[in-house]
Amino acid sequence: MAKVLIINPVVREEDVPRHVPYGLALLASIAIERGHQVQVYDENAWRQGEETLREVLKADQWDALALGGITTAYGSIKKIVKLAREVCPKTTIVLGGGVLTSLPREIMTFLPQVNVGCVGEGFDTFPEILDAIDQGKQNWADIPGTISRNNNGEFVLSPERDLLMDLDSLPYPAWDLFPLEEVYFKNSEALFSEEGMLAKRRLDINASYGCSLICRYCYHLGLSGDMRYKDDSEGNPNVEFDEPGNYTRIIRYHSPEYIVKMIKHIYDKYQVDFVSFLDENLMTMNTSSGGTWMKQICDLMKENGLAPEPQYDESGELTGWKGIHWSGTSHASLCNPEILKTMREAGCSHLVYGYESFAPHVMKTVGKGATVKNNYRSFFWTLESGIRPIPNIIIGFPNEDFDSIRDNMLAWDELGIVVKPHFATPYPGSEWFTVYRKSIEEQYGGDLEAFILDLGDASQISAIISHNFNTVELVGLREMMLTRNTRLIDNYEKIWRNNHKIPKEQPSTLFLKQTPTGVLLDQPVQG
Fold first, then answer.
1. Using an 8 Å Cβ cutoff, are 364 and 520 in contact?
2. 241 CB contacts (<8 Å, ≥6 apart)?
3. How far apart are CA 401 and CA 421, in angstroms?
4. How does DSSP assign 191-229, residue by residue?
5. What integer pLDDT is reported at residue 321 of this predicted model?
6. Fewer CB within 10 Å, N- or C-terminus of the chain?
7. How many CB atoms lie within 10 A of CB 206?
8. Where would I find the beta strands (DSSP E) of 357-405?
9. What is the pLDDT of residue 18?
10. Cα separation of 288 and 343, whole Å?
11. What pLDDT is recorded for position 510?
12. What are the distances in angstroms from CA 303 to CA 110, 208, 322, 341?
């Protein structure tokens, strides 16, 4: 069988490694089930640099080197494949994940060392690639869900791979191949709740794939059925994702029984005390099931003795617990007090809410499906249930203006919080990347790869999609928001209006209308 080396690239270098790469761990488990010999080098965990990576690559005669990740791992992936081709000239290099799927032709162009790319979901595609390598067959075009090069160096995109609908048929991830004790458990704390801060042995799980929402800044990369194969202007097959007015959503999730059995497995085997759900949005899955999915998970957590029992010291301080606390994501318009109370009783400690904005005119363009009222209500409902709501805010949306900046600051005052906003970032695969691609490339001198290399977790600014503010203005406005300096914001609005010749009585935006497809017009609208 094939000797396979899976490498986890570095991501978020500014932080310690906190998350076992769930997708790679799952693919490793699938490959092992098929009889392949799998080893893992977790560069994100070890961060030992090029010399150690070179030693790993020399350690065996690898038939396949597999790696992947999200777009923000691209810089590390580029270094890895370049070194791998130098050290292992005959090894087949396989790349997958969002970094490849979002822009398959472009990424294959940027990375000539890669032999075959896995486009979309890899549960079936990846083991078929390994089987072909083991059998000495290298005609990748015969395997659905791949991109490769023919003998003339032209890209060949094979037919689309169908999504796996029976998620419960998947094995558990191969956590044992990753440095749990040495690295990941040491970085278990999650600074969002008391229980999260006290976590000593945390692991992540994924209960679902995709999301029903059409948030225009977000990407699903085929996991929600949003990927379409379509010929480009030159007749070459290519992949497309969400674009204005064209959305497809397929909702898939594990059964509550599968999820809780997996949690019980890691509780018994690794003595895990905290679980993070990696799902895009737990509440959309709960709604899709008619409101039964999350309740069944919570009920089964209790029935299996996993609901936490807190332990306190003599002074009444929480010191730990028996069982498992957990966290995940929620949605402002889809939660309710009853399910939140049930989740808390089953061990939920905090929920991340993508509120994005508290400005009504901004929220209407985002595609989130929530209102300002939803945001406020869900925040207090979650607090009252005993769960910590963790709000995310974004600035720099296309129609961001001074009014929306103030709306967000007012909401912070009323909620008693301060949130450092992320910047609206048009990640490849999102609708707003499609809409603003030309502008994005222009901001990087026509160099798309430079933009990809610049992408991070949106805490730092990269390409902007704001029609009203430039890069310097957005960075400065965020700092003034955080210091609550309304005086400087008011003063700068006067300067901004004068520069753009927008009267005081007119709304502080350069555009007010939308096309029927939702694309905002970059032009002043009078009256």
1. no
2. 102, 219, 220, 221, 222, 226, 227, 228, 429, 430, 431, 434
3. 15
4. TTSHHHHH-SSEEEE--EE--S---TT---TTTTS--EE
5. 81
6. C
7. 20
8. 388-395
9. 94
10. 17
11. 59
12. 51, 22, 14, 17
312 neighbors 330 (Cβ within 8 angstroms): no
- What would the DSSP string read from start to end of 310-344? EEE-TTS-EEEEES-EEEEEE-TTT--HHHHHHHH
CA distance 395 to 387: 26
DSSP structural state of residue 246: B
* 513 pLDDT above the threshold of 80: no
Half-sphere exposure of 498 (CA within 13 A, CB side): 6
Written as six digits, the tokens of 396 are 């720099």
What pLDDT, in 10s, does the model give residues 413-456? Answer: 999 999 999 999 999 999 999 999 999 999 999 999 999 999 99
Q: How far is CA 341 from CA 98, 355, 387, 404, 435, in A?
A: 35, 21, 8, 32, 41
> Phi and psi dihedrals of 129, rounded to 5?
-65, -45
Q: Tell me, what amino acid is at 66?
A: A
Burial class for 208, CB neighbours closer than 10 Å (0-12, 13-18, 19+):
buried
User: Over the range 401-428, which residues count as b (16 or more CB within 10 Å of their CB) and which as e?
Assistant: bbbbbbbbbebbeebeeebebbbbbbbb
Instruction: Please report which helix (H) or strand (E) contains residue 69, including its range.
Output: none
Instruction: Identify the helix (H) or strand (E) that includes residue 164.
Output: none
Which residue did the predictor score with more confidence, 26 or 280? Answer: 26
**Cα–Cα distance for residue pair 522/510, rounded to 1 Å:** 7
| Rounded Cα distance, 509 and 469, in Å | 10
pLDDT, residue 219, reads 85
The two three-digit tokens of residue 422, written as one number:
């992320």
Q: What are phi and psi of 130, to 5 degrees?
A: -65, -40
- At 88 the three-state DSSP class reads coil
Set out the domains of the chain in order of their start, with CATH numbers: 3-166 (3.40.50.280)
DSSP 431: H
**Interaxial angle between packed helices 372-385 and 337-345, expressed in degrees from 0 to 180 and rounded to the nearest 10:** 30
Report field, pTM of the whole predicted structure over 0.90: yes
Amino acid at 383: L
DSSP-derived 3-state class of residue 399: coil
* Distance between CA atoms of residues 119 and 227, nearest Å: 10
State whether residue 135 is helix, strand or coil. Answer: coil
d(CA 425, CA 440): 10
- Asked whether the beta carbons of 335 and 381 are under 8 A apart, the reply is yes
- For residue 227, is pLDDT > 90? no
pLDDT at 413: 95
State the amino acid at position 348 in one-letter form. C
From its phi and psi, is residue 264 left (phi > 0), alpha (psi between -120 and 50) or beta? Answer: alpha
**243 in helix, strand or coil?**
strand
